[in-house]
């Protein structure tokens, strides 16, 4: 990763010459020229402008920031007047919050008026009041590492709260007291956990103490905003750290209560401290089955015919042992939540064993309920719940073996989440018994091999009956309606059990089935 740029250059655009930064910044660090150009425009108009927050922080981390955020003493209308003609385009959708957006030469820039933002005790929405100094604006920001700015066009670093030192120490603190910060915006407690995941940074004791004392205040924040922070946390490089912080501070009791509930349970294999620790381990192991997204992007650029979907082109093949591009929220969240049905299904047997029968089905229902409460979209809910429901399906394959029919059903039931199901099933092996772990891995290798063999013969992923709906109606002499659906479903089940037969045999089977239906005599 190139530490000398705060934002990647626009796609298809040559990397620009960067403006070097003075002593005090990391060696080789620089800024895109548009940053200085905008600073000169504001200075010429008699106003202050500073690059602020994430882009400044990421300069000191050697990371590429996806944003160029600025703050100014100019109000939104004045900001528009200053930069409208200079920019290629602008938008004012965030104007009521003091933000005007611009694009210039492919770069995206957002300029926000100095502000102070706080919540009423019972409000879900922030009250926005514009400020008049950079120092006041930085004081109201969430954490010291995000409360740094670079004055423009002078390139003076403003770090009033020790953000650089905190980055070096790997410590997350608030500019003011954490109690005041979290009272102003309770979502910052979720952000603390998110930054622990994204930056691999520790959290100051004063911050964790305030989070614990004020955890219930997160309930005034909208579900949508909580969801967005949770997704960023799970998709970070160190999600265990963020999730542990949520659980330890009791924030999870309000936003993801199924997670701390797992701490009360014992895994049926008695190989882990609790199901909670097992679930975190499965999530981390699932991450190992992701591949860098840029691999597929690079491959698509080098193989345009395949990227365009030409039938005879070789598709992209992920590196061995990987299935989805990183980060994959659906896979990670399903891995985290795959055992949430265990608390409700735990039973103590007469012989002293602990069982969790049907925890996969119960868990899928709980996952749907929680994700709906967090306002996830239906497709994401369906995918995660399906993985939770199917995560136990594989077990027993190595002992009893499966018929081709069972393999077909496994693929058909998984549908589009099959690659993720491969990753989740392989990850759900945390036993320390190496012989057992190897046996399960070899068994899944064998299952995938059989899928490949059957798919080559039958186009497994597009399993359909040998007759379509129109043919069913023509053969039986019936009109569209529920009976057609029942007939189609019967032929599909027969297809899954028996494999492909061809239209003649399928017609004979259809007529045999029809003779047993009450409608056939009417």
Would you spell out the secondary-structure blueprint of this structure?
Layout: E1 19-20, E2 30-31, H1 33-44, E3 49-52, H2 54-61, E4 69-72, H3 76-83, E5 89-91, E6 99-104, E7 107-113, E8 115-118, E9 127-130, H4 134-139, E10 149-152, E11 156-158, H5 163-169, E12 171-172, H6 178-184, H7 187-199, E13 202-203, H8 205-213, H9 223-234, H10 239-248, H11 252-255, H12 258-261, H13 275-287, E14 290-292, H14 293-302, H15 304-307, E15 324-326, H16 329-337, H17 342-345, E16 347-348, E17 354-355, H18 359-373, H19 378-390, H20 397-400, H21 404-414, H22 418-427, H23 434-458, H24 469-476, H25 482-498, H26 503-515
Parallel strand pairs: 4-7, 12-13, 14-15
Antiparallel strand pairs: 1-2, 3-4, 3-10, 5-6, 6-7, 8-9, 10-11, 16-17
Helix pairs in contact: 7-9, 7-10, 13-16, 13-22, 16-19, 16-22, 18-19, 21-23
